[in-house]
Amino acid sequence: MTTSKMTKIEKLTELFRQFPGIGPRQAQRFVYFLLSMRSEDLSELSETIGSLSKEVSQCSSCFRFFPAVENRYKCEICSDTSRDNSLLFIVAKDVDLESVEKSRTYGGLYFVTGGTLPLNEKNPDNKIRLKNLIDRTNTESQNLREIILGFNLNAEGEHTSSYIEEKIGPIAAKKGIKISFLARGLSTGAELEYADSTTLKNALKNRT
Ligand SMILES: [Zn+2]
């Protein structure tokens, strides 16, 4: 193997290592898998990745990603006037939102923070979309009655919940918006992304 080829493999391995939950060995396996792919499939994959940012937009209201449509800035959930705009469900990631949507147990609106806060995070306000959330809470119509904090039931999720509660609490109190938390009926450490519909339904129904 030539040195330049090694460099490409190493570079791609490094890129895969930045993916959530991927360690160095798995990253390397991905690279060798790509090398074993048929060239047509590999081209299709690389074209899809290349066009991703052009064909996907980020919602100006909830910040989730959705298939791009010219001159449309809000996703189909935020543009759907039949949804209950008295409820705002705060989740960390797009996959959490998808999981709640799939369970068909919730008909309100969402806000995606883009992540959670590690306990020792030095720059929490840049790590999650706190400013956007504050703006949204400030500018929401009077219809908004409740903000549901839907973070995973682990240390990082709970830390994120209390941080957000502390930051938006005063605005919410002023506007008469209740802040609630998903019920802890589920086992500690439960992740929204993998929760089944019944678990989600109970967590929502018994929120406090
Ligand atoms: Zn949206």
Fold and architecture overview:
- With 208 residues, the chain is an alpha/beta fold.
- It folds into 2 domains: 3-52, RecR Domain 1 (Helicase, Ruva Protein, domain 3); 81-205, Dna Topoisomerase Vi A Subunit, Chain: A, domain 2 (3-Layer(aba) Sandwich).
- The chain contains 9 helices and 6 strands; from the N terminus they run αααββαβαβααβαβα.
- The strands form 2 sheets. It has a 4-stranded parallel beta sheet with strand order 4-3-5-6. It has a two-stranded antiparallel sheet with strand order 1-2.
- Helix 7 runs parallel beside helix 8.
- Zinc ion binds next to helix 4.
- Zinc ion (ZN) binds at residues 59, 61-62, 64, 74-75, 77-78.
Count of domains = 2
- Poorly predicted regions: none
Q: What would you call the shape?
A: globular
Overall residue-averaged pLDDT value? 90
**Element string (H = helix, E = strand):** HHHEEHEHEHHEHEH
